[in-house]
Amino acid sequence: MPLKVSLVSADAEVWSGEASLVVAKTVEGEIGFMTGHEPVLAILAEGQVRITESSGNKVIANAQDGFLSVEHDEVTIVAGNASLVS
What we know:
- This protein is mainly beta and 86 residues long.
- The chain has a single domain, classed as Sandwich (ATP Synthase, domain 1).
- The chain has no helices and six strands.
- The chain has strands at 3-8, 13-26, 29-33, 40-53, 58-71, 74-84.
- It has a five-stranded mixed barrel.
- It is globular, with a radius of gyration of 11 Å.
- Its main location: membrane.
- It comes from Microbacterium caowuchunii.
- This is F0F1 ATP synthase subunit epsilon.
- Keywords: ATP synthesis, CF(1), Ion transport, Membrane, Transport.
- F-type ATPases have 2 components, CF(1) - the catalytic core - and CF(0) - the membrane proton channel. CF(1) has five subunits: alpha(3), beta(3), gamma(1), delta(1), epsilon(1). CF(0) has three main subunits: a, b and c.
């Protein structure tokens, strides 16, 4: 079962979909999430969010000023500023 991922900035949804892996930079370091991960709430640091879609395609976004939460295989990333790189 894939992760359900939503990446939003202050003014728009940047990306949403299903993924097998999400890696983001937090103020405590880089962290990765796969299905079955324990619940997490973390503060984003400026950096990349790397998403591996269920199909294997890679999505990269720059994000800063926000937080991320993980619960029940749902990853929500809310950033003050976020944009897709690829």
